[in-house]
Design goal:
The complex is a heterodimer of chains A (485) and B (356). Chain A is 45% helix and 12% strand. Chain A has 485 residues and is an alpha/beta fold. In chain A, the strands form two sheets. In chain A, strands 3-4-2-5-6-1-7 form a seven-stranded parallel sheet, sandwiched between helices. A six-stranded parallel sheet of chain A has the order 8-13-12-9-11-10, sandwiched between helices. In chain A, helix 2 packs parallel to helix 3 and helix 14 packs antiparallel against helix 17. A three-stranded antiparallel sheet of chain B has the order 1-3-2. In chain B, strand 2 and strand 3 form a beta hairpin. Classes of the chains: A alpha/beta (485), B mainly alpha (356). Chain B: It holds the Pfam family HTH_40.
């Protein structure tokens, strides 16, 4: 079986080897076993269902919460060789949705948002189709205990049954034990029905570092120095679009690196140009919000810098996982100044409704349908939960988020090994014999005085792409369209 | 888009113009008031050319233009360009094709054509290298279907050569010639990532808005070229379904009923269409503004007697004549007829009512 699967891998994707866990998961699916897979970012989740679809010629439904990025996922699957791919999301207008539903049988891979899947018309149409595999991507969204809870995910268990209980693959990059139990229960499985494959969260090739700055000015100066001298392509993450844009401008002016901003608020065409430039090596650095990186494969990102504090350790681990996907050394830097915590607290206040807002919304339930940010409140309201129950739920949610933020801040201030600090969150530890103090975190070596040496020693600077050389329009046209003559 | 740049391009040294009216004209807000001012400013050809675009804050833009000495403002939020503003306007216009190529966007969805052509170029480019592993551009479902059908039907027609030839002919004839370099950066294809408008602007030391307008003009020009090539052209499907109506369909329906009537009973039209009488007035004014003078029956709506009174009392600049002033000298004057007269006079002074 092993040999056969590898041959299939080569045949469909041209790869010689699977990434850790992929082969096991595929074997489970091919043996018709429902599977929960915890695979780290960059672990090749897409390949799993794409290869299953290719080998079995069956239809695959992928439930994904990332509406704004679903089109990127469609592009990515097309890039990887599957052409019959479509996305059903609330971003479609009525006519598009009608046309897609009418012709849904033409598609082998159907991405669908959980909100769209809750729609009766969509369910009815899917019930008419043969479904070979039902994939729940980002499955941690199903858990109230997870940081990204989406109430529509709670309906997935019932929806799956209505679709004839097809073979199911639930995937996430990061899930703690309680979250895993929660996922299985909400999907209406009993633990014995599910085969779990849990890969280590630890990415030993990523060096971990963090630094506390006195203020933003000091942080900005340090960022310029880092960007000037760190080798390789890199991503800098921000919590705000405007700061990402502003910093991209500053870094362009102050360094000789090629830097652009990328965020969900941009039009699709410039976003596409920038993504292509970064992939092709025409850009060195992307100043991004968390939207960047989910839809694309760029294996040689050498460093990920967080200019702002992420909301929780799960998000942080996901985002730093975008460097070193080629398994060569990568560097994660978290830049912190005390106001960053307040920024995240502000985001919590903005996203978790307080008691007075709940009072108002319960008194004016029509308002619940006016704004997407009330979706979670609407869920509990429609579910029959009382105002007091809703208040308790949201107070818990707030407390949990504050606690998660606290864990993130603790990661910054810890004087112990940063890797241990990250992994303990996932009940994981560095395996005996695999600890490597010379390449682990900035507490084991004098990183902050020697980061330039670190960069020279470990981070490869890729050769400059020739694409960016100035060309006349005639040369560009000749380059674009290869003539047979 | 930077509203300051647009105000300089569409502002005037002779006339005070409302910032909001210009903005609403460009983004296609078809209220009678906006259309009327577009007529007065000679900007009817530019209605909806920047459909759906985000602009800056009117008041802020006005303040910036005034404080930088590029415009003067009156107390009704109107601006008139200063000599310095006109210099700057000229500098922008020198970087653009004649504005008639921007006006193509008023009649056709050029922005959609641009996305379509850019995606088609990517497909053909990768096809010419035999590569089917690439990130395709994102485009809506119907556009995607159109391109798929077009590609499947034509992929054995040596598409790469046709694209090469088309672009060589089109870009080779451009004046100013350097716009050809601006155009090709909008494309994406095999081992070519193109540039964003912002990146092109940095390279050429100009404004991102100017580059965005250059692209719209260039694609407008290319669209016209491909439409002239006729239905049998290989590229014909790429220019199909892009026409925009210059009059809203509801106004067209009202006007059609009006033409079918013998007694010109506007209340009857309102009843039949289940709309308010004032909406019927607005529809007729919209059609009047957007039609050539001879194509609208002014005389059926303004009696000879009223027309004579209006002609007798009109000031030199009829566009600035207020309804309040007019109704003081003409008894029983209705706003609808007053505005219709203004449109009529404005059109008569500018024969076909348009400016290219």
């Amino acid at each position: 079986m092993t040999m056969d699967l590898k041959r299939e891998l080569k045949k469909y994707f041209g790869f010689d080897d699977f990434r850790p866990g992929q082969e096991d998961i595929l074997k489970n699916l091919l043996a018709n076993r429902n599977t929960l897979a915890i695979l780290p970012t960059g672990g090749g989740k897409t390949l799993l269902y794409q290869m299953y679809g290719a080998m079995t010629h069956q239809r695959v439904i992928i439930v994904s919460p990332l509406i704004s990025l679903m089109q990127d996922q469609v592009s990515r699957l097309q890039y990887l060789g599957s052409k019959r791919v479509v996305a059903l999301t609330s971003a479609l207008d009525f006519q598009e949705k009608t046309a897609i539903l009418t012709h849904l049988n033409r598609y082998q891979f159907i991405y669908v948002s959980p909100e769209m899947l809750a729609n009766q018309q969509v369910q009815q149409r899917l019930m008419q189709l043969q479904i070979g595999l039902f994939v729940v991507d980002e499955a941690h969204c199903i858990s109230e205990w997870g940081p990204d809870f989406r109430p529509d995910y709670l309906k997935l268990g019932t929806v799956r049954e209505r679709l004839g209980s097809p073979l199911t693959l639930m995937m996430t990059a990061t899930a703690t034990q309680p979250v895993r139990r929660n996922i299985i229960a909400h999907m209406n499985f009993s633990p014995g029905d599910i085969h779990q494959i849990v890969l280590p969260v630890n990415r030993a090739n990523i060096f971990l570092s963090a630094k506390i700055f006195a203020n933003q000015h000091e942080k900005d100066d340090a960022l310029i120095e880092l960007v000037k001298q760190l080798n390789g392509p890199g991503i800098i993450y921000f919590s705000s679009k405007s700061k990402a844009e502003q910093t991209a401008n500053t870094l362009t002016n102050e360094t000789d690196r090629r830097v652009m901003a990328y965020h969900g608020g941009m039009d699709s065409q410039p976003r596409f140009h920038i993504q292509q430039q970064f992939l092709a090596g025409n850009l060195d650095i992307i100043c991004a919000t968390s939207a960047f990186g989910m839809g694309i494969d760029k294996n040689n990102v050498r460093f990920v810098i967080h200019y702002h504090l992420p909301a929780n350790i799960q998000s942080y681990v996901q985002e730093i996982g975008r460097c070193g996907r080629d398994r060569k050394p990568g560097l994660a830097i978290l830049m912190y100044e005390p106001n960053d915590r307040a920024l995240q607290m502000g985001l919590i206040d903005h996203t978790v409704p307080d008691e007075s807002l709940l009072d108002y919304l319960y008194a004016h339930p029509k308002m619940l349908s006016t704004d997407d940010q009330f979706r979670v409140v609407k869920f509990y309201h429609d579910n029959g939960d009382s105002l007091e129950q809703a208040k308790t739920i949201f107070n818990h949610a707030r407390t949990r988020r504050v606690k998660e933020l606290g864990a993130m801040v603790q990661y910054v201030y810890t004087e112990k090994c940063r890797r241990d600090e990250l992994l303990k969150y996932f009940d994981e530890a560095v395996p005996d014999g695999e600890r490597n103090p010379s390449y682990c975190c900035d507490h084991d070596v004098d990183f902050w005085d020697r980061w330039r040496d670190f960069s020279r020693q470990y981070l490869n600077q890729p050769a400059q792409s020739s694409q960016n050389e100035a060309k006349s329009w005639q040369q560009v046209i000749d380059q674009l369209f290869l003539s047979k003559n | 888009m930077d509203l300051r740049v647009l105000m300089l391009i569409f502002g005037s040294g002779q006339q005070f113009r409302r910032v909001k009216a210009i903005k609403n004209t460009l983004r296609g807000r078809r209220t009678v008031s906006n259309l009327y001012w577009a007529l007065e400013y000679g900007l009817l050809d530019f209605v909806d050319v920047l459909h759906g675009t985000d602009f800056g804050e009117d008041q802020l833009v006005l303040t910036q233009l005034v404080s930088s000495g590029l415009a003067r403002a009156d107390d009704t939020f109107r601006i008139q360009l200063t000599a310095k503003g006109i210099d700057q306007q000229q500098r922008y216009l020198n970087q653009l094709l004649p504005l008639k190529y921007l006006a193509v966007s008023s009649r056709y969805d050029v922005a959609k054509f641009m996305r379509r052509f850019s995606f088609a170029s990517q497909i053909v480019s990768e096809f010419s290298y035999g590569n089917n592993q690439y990130y395709p551009q994102s485009i809506n479902y119907f556009e995607d279907q159109l391109l798929k059908r077009w590609f499947v039907m034509n992929k054995h027609q040596d598409l790469p050569r046709h694209f090469q030839q088309l672009l060589r002919d089109f870009l080779g004839d451009l004046q100013p010639a350097d716009l050809a370099d601006v155009f090709v950066q909008s494309l994406v294809g095999h081992n070519f990532s193109g540039l964003t408008a912002e990146q092109v602007a940095v390279k050429r030391r100009t404004s991102t808005t100017v580059v965005a307008l250059q692209w719209l003009q260039l694609y407008g020009m290319l669209l016209e070229k491909l439409m002239q090539a006729g239905k049998t052209s290989l590229f014909s499907p790429l220019v199909s379904g892009l026409a925009k109506s210059t009059v809203s369909s509801s106004a067209q329906a009202t006007f059609k009923l009006f033409l079918q009537q013998k007694n010109h009973n506007l209340q009857a039209i309102a009843t039949q269409r289940k709309i308010k009488l004032t909406t019927v007035y607005e529809h007729l004014l919209e059609v009047a503004i957007m039609s050539k003078t001879a194509a609208f029956p002014y005389r059926a709506l303004i009696s000879d007697d009223l027309m004579n009174q209006l002609l007798a009392h009109q000031p030199q600049n009829v566009g600035e004549w207020t309804f309040q002033d007019a109704s003081q000298v003409i008894g029983q004057l209705a706003f609808f007829q007053f505005r219709l007269f203004q449109i009529y006079r404005s059109k008569m002074s500018d024969d076909d009512g348009s400016q290219a």
